[in-house]
Amino acid sequence: MADQEDLPEGTVQNILDQESLKWVFVGGKGGVGKTTCSSILSILLARVRSSVLIISTDPAHNLSDAFQQRFTKSPTLVNGFTNLYAMEVDPTVEHEEMGGSEGMDSLVSDLANSIPGIDEAMSFAEMLKLVQTMDYSVIVFDTAPTGHTLRLLQFPSTLEKGLAKMMSLKNKFGGLFTQMTRMLGVGDEFGEDAILGRLEGMKDVIEQVNKQFKDPDMTTFVCVCIPEFLSLYETERLVQELTKFEIDTHNIIINQMLNPKLLKARMKMQKKYLDQFYMLYDDFHITKLPLLPEEVTGVEALKAFSRHFVSPVSTTS
């Protein structure tokens, strides 16, 4: 195997050069800097594309913090740009917010809650339907931590299973559901066929997009990580899952690399914020933990590190 020094340095230029790309997913373990990387990637793409939309599907929604601008579920032009838009969506948003008939949405939402995972899948389908109507050259997804990302890629099969379950219920109970809705004075637009039609429509949209997701000319996944064991492990799991779902991935961004020249500047910055912590929380017990040259893994290492929880750490030198 080649040494690290022998390997050519990689960049994201290949993504910027691939003009056919429509969807760019950015994902990885929590806390590795996905939002920063996806935001920068969207800025770089805005230089070479006519229009770019960056969407945060992470419930934490750090996109507003990254750009220091408030974003909502509607695309908003990023300050200082003419062709870069951003929006933050909650994959578990209630269906009443999705528009359409209120009664229908409420009924679909109630039914969806009885099928594990389908509520999130339907919300994502609605969001994709909205995005499909927009004319953006490329769309960047700032995804939630790995587990949520993998669920997002499973949505088409989740919807399919949900529809199959609802069809089996329809066959089992015959016209009982329709009779009940009529007894309650509800029109045909809330009948089983209307609801199944609504779900079928969402399924069509998400299946159409899913085909694009599996097309390497249109979609790629950028893995963000840090040079530590847990992040390496998570990245490997993510790459294997993406391969299983036939999602193209050939870019890895390794974040938080140390630079000795920046150490003093970093210490100066930390000192400024430490002073603020002590000023704001003067009645708290503040425990400082040092950054170590090695990872804290294994019982013995954890025991050794535990001394810093009961002995003050010096911030000088």
From TrEMBL:
GO terms for biological process: tail-anchored membrane protein insertion into ER membrane. CDD domains: ArsA. It is found in: Cytoplasm; Endoplasmic reticulum. The keyword Aminoacyl-tRNA synthetase does not apply. The active site is at residue 58. GO terms for molecular function: ATP binding; ATP hydrolysis activity. The keyword Hydrolase applies. SUPFAM superfamilies: P-loop containing nucleoside triphosphate hydrolases. Pfam families: ArsA_ATPase (PF02374). GO terms for cellular component: GET complex. InterPro entries: ArsA/GET3_ATPase-like, ATPase_ArsA/GET3, ATPase_ArsA/GET3_euk, P-loop_NTPase. Homodimer. ATPase required for the post-translational delivery of tail-anchored (TA) proteins to the endoplasmic reticulum. Recognizes and selectively binds the transmembrane domain of TA proteins in the cytosol. This complex then targets to the endoplasmic reticulum by membrane-bound receptors, where the tail-anchored protein is released for insertion. This process is regulated by ATP binding and hydrolysis. ATP binding drives the homodimer towards the closed dimer state, facilitating recognition of newly synthesized TA membrane proteins. ATP hydrolysis is required for insertion. This is ATPase. The lineage of its organism: Eukaryota, Viridiplantae, Streptophyta, Embryophyta, Tracheophyta.
